[in-house]
Design a protein that fits this description.
The protein is mostly beta strands. It has a single domain (2-97), classed as Immunoglobulin-like. It is 0% helix and 55% strand. The protein is built from no helices and nine strands. The protein has strands at residues 2-7, 13-21, 28-32, 45-46, 51-59, 63-70, 73-75, 82-86, 91-97. Strands 3, 6, 7, 8 and 9 form a five-stranded antiparallel beta sheet that branches. The mean pLDDT is 95. Residues 23-96 form the AMP-activated protein kinase glycogen-binding domain. It comes from Abyssalbus ytuae. This is Isoamylase early set domain-containing protein. Pfam families: AMPK1_CBM.
Length: 98
């Protein structure tokens, strides 16, 4: 798993690219505060090499809790900036700091 951040000088957004290796998966989405935890707004596209990838424009100077939804199972990114406990889910969420 990887997260790439590209800060734009002319805009107040950061292009964030999420890459998830999941050769056996059928559906992968990134869900979080930035898309109201809606999988349809965070779908990642399958690449020929078996990875899933997607880029999103997110406002700068913010923090977002997120997780990957891989075929119905929630997974944290191992390269997240930090983790935050979520009482509702009873587990930690990954945190993205922009």
């Amino acid at each position: 798993m990887s997260i790439a951040k590209q800060y734009l000088k002319t805009k107040s957004v950061c292009k964030v690219t999420f890459t998830v290796p999941a050769e056996e998966a059928k559906n992968v989405a990134v869900v979080g505060d930035f898309n109201d935890w809606k999988p349809t707004q965070g779908e990642l596209k399958r690449l020929k090499n078996g990875n899933f990838k997607g880029t999103f424009d997110l406002p700068k100077d913010s923090e977002y809790e997120f997780r990957y939804l891989i075929d119905g199972s929630y997974i944290n990114d191992t390269e997240a900036d930090r983790y935050q406990w979520n009482d509702y889910a009873g587990t930690e969420n990954a945190v993205l700091v922009i």
